[in-house]
Every structure is written in structure tokens, then in C-alpha cells.
Design a protein that fits this description.
alpha/beta, two-stranded parallel sheet
Length: 329
């Protein structure tokens, strides 16, 4: 075995070992939700952000808190409300006096961290929501003409409630596109309910230890980017993304009828990174068509804009994505 092949194999094994260590630590507190936890971790190691959607009380915030405890990283939380201002998020200039001289110093906001929980992000006004755009895309903050870089790694885990409309501001398409995945958190089953009560109703909650560092996360990201993908599999990925556009010749009739705009190239980038991670977790150092198809829904569902007919008929983006994927099976 050559040195290069041995190093590649070792990197893949470290990726899987670290991933499973983090997942097992989260599972000490979070009951079930295995697929959600895995998808959140895939997004995080890919350097992406996650939007978690679900009704209150399903453990969205608890999941993010537990993940932050399992990583040896700086964690901050912002509770989004209608009166929150952009300066409350990114920071502002403050007047300070030193030795009789006054000057403006930058006071960093809570985004200066590694793990940011944006709780109930759709309760903030569009102006405040947009304050996160630069941080999510450029990993930087610009205040008074000066750019401040954020430490790596940096990722935003945002939550939103899908049922309350009064006092909420839906995220604009440009900001939704910055999220690597959009995940739906579902109601636990009967056995999971019982386990939740057992773990949280005792004298002391489980202790979560930090089992991975920022450098571990960056190393996992490098391993992902080095995982090969065959040209035919990448072509399959591209065809899926392009078929979400009604103007594409490969678009199913449902897409032509119910979609106004399809997924962006960022959707393809998210699918590529996530499918690489899925392949590594399965013990393979190559990406398959099944890997690509499996990550299509979380990567594309928030990037498809329905037409008036689609919204009127209550069409779900997941239904359209399933049609597209099955078209190329």
C-alpha cells in the first residue's frame, strides 16, 4: 500500500471515528432523531449552516445546545425578537475614553463565536435577519467600513416555528439559500416519549463532554473535500438540480407546473459535500448515486420557489424533489 493511499485511508477512518464520537455524545441527551443528528453533523463538518423547523418543544434548541457542549468551541445564543437590532447581532462602535482621549472601539456582537444558535430566527425583522447574511456567507462582519473576520470554524444553527404567522417574518430566498440544509424535526414516537421523560425527569441530566475540537472539524472538512466523485455520479447530481427548474428539458411535468424558480448552484454544492460525508460513514471512499439521491431533499427543499399554482394547491417541495430523483433512478 502506497503512503498516499494509507494516509487517505487513515483520514477517512479518523473522519468516521470523530463523527461517531460526537453523535454518541449527543445521543446521551437527545432521544431518537438519529437522522436529524446525522444530517446536522454532515452540514457542520461541511462548513454549512442548518435551519431546523418544527413546532415548539421538540428539542430543536436542546439539540443545538448539546452539539455545542460536545464540541470544544465557543457557543453563543441569540433569541430573535421583533425589537432585536442588527447591532445586537453583529456588534457596534462604542465611544471609549483612555488617558483623556476619546475614540471609537468596536464592541463585538454574539456572532463572534464558533457555534451560533439563532433561536426563532423568523421572529426578527428582515433588517435584523439580513445582518446574518454576511456572516453566513463571508464569515466576516463589516461595521463602519471595517471588516472583522470570524474565527473558524463558524456555523449558524437556526430554528423556526412553522405554524405561527402573527409576529413572524419569513426568511427571504437569498437568506434561505445560505443554509446548507433545511431539516424538519418531527414528533417522537411512544417509546421515545418514555425515554425523554426518563432522562429529563431524574435527579440530574446526563453530562455531555467535549469530544472534538475546532481543528477536528476543520480536518473532517478537508477529508470531505478530498473524497473523489466519479464524473457519472457528479453528472447525476447536476441533472437532479437542473431538473428542479421549470425551464429544464429534464424537468418533470409537476415541476413545470408548480415551480417558479429551481435550486441554485449552492444546492449542488451542499449535495456534493453531504453525499461525500454519507459515503465515508458507509465505509466507502467514493460517492454513489444513492448517496446523491439521499441528500437531495434536505439540500434542495428550501431552495425551490413554488409558483402561485403550487402554493394554492399546497404542493410540498419534498414531493417535487422525490419526482425529480425518481425520474433519474
Amino acid at each position: 500500500m502506497s503512503i498516499a493511499v494509507a494516509e487517505t485511508q487513515q483520514a477517512a477512518e479518523r473522519f468516521v471515528a470523530t463523527f461517531e464520537r460526537i453523535r454518541d455524545e449527543i445521543a446521551k441527551f437527545i432521544v431518537g432523531q438519529r437522522e436529524i443528528v446525522e444530517q446536522v453533523l454532515l452540514a457542520v463538518v461541511s462548513g454549512g449552516h442548518v435551519l431546523l423547523e418544527g413546532v415548539p418543544g421538540l428539542g430543536k434548541t436542546a439539540l443545538v445546545n448539546t452539539l455545542a457542549q460536545a464540541l470544544h468551541l465557543k457557543f453563543q445564543r441569540i433569541q430573535f425578537t421583533p425589537d432585536l437590532l442588527p447591532a445586537d447581532v453583529v456588534g457596534t462602535q462604542v465611544l471609549v475614553e483612555r488617558g483623556g482621549a476619546k475614540s471609537l472601539d468596536f464592541q463585538p456582537g454574539p456572532v463572534f463565536c464558533n457555534v451560533l444558535l439563532a433561536d426563532e430566527i423568523n421572529r426578527a425583522t428582515p433588517k435584523t435577519q439580513s445582518a446574518l447574511l454576511e456572516t453566513m456567507q463571508e464569515k466576516a462582519v463589516t461595521v463602519a467600513g471595517r471588516t472583522h473576520r470570524l474565527d473558524a470554524p463558524f456555523f449558524v444553527l437556526a430554528t423556526q416555528n412553522p405554524i405561527e404567522q402573527e409576529g413572524t417574518y419569513p426568511l427571504p430566498e437569498a437568506q434561505l439559500d445560505r443554509f446548507f440544509f433545511k431539516l424538519f424535526v418531527k414528533l417522537p414516537d411512544h417509546a421515545e416519549f418514555a425515554e425523554i421523560l426518563r432522562r429529563t425527569g431524574g435527579a440530574a441530566p446526563p453530562t455531555i463532554d467535549a469530544v472534538a475540537s475546532g481543528e477536528d472539524m476543520l480536518a473532517m472538512g478537508r477529508t470531505l473535500r478530498e473524497t473523489p466523485i466519479d464524473d457519472a455520479v457528479q453528472d447525476h447530481l447536476i441533472r437532479i438540480v437542473r431538473a428542479t427548474h421549470p425551464s429544464s428539458e429534464d424537468a418533470p411535468p409537476e415541476v413545470r407546473k408548480f415551480v417558479r424558480h429551481g435550486a441554485s448552484p449552492r444546492g449542488a454544492q451542499a449535495m456534493l459535500a453531504a453525499s461525500r460525508g454519507r459515503a465515508l460513514l458507509a465505509g466507502r471512499y467514493h460517492v454513489s448515486r444513492d448517496d446523491v439521491s439521499a441528500v437531495a431533499a434536505p439540500a434542495l427543499r428550501h431552495r425551490i420557489i413554488l409558483s402561485f399554482e403550487g402554493e394554492a394547491e399546497g404542493i410540498r417541495a419534498d414531493e417535487l424533489i422525490d419526482r425529480v430523483v425518481r425520474r433519474f433512478d
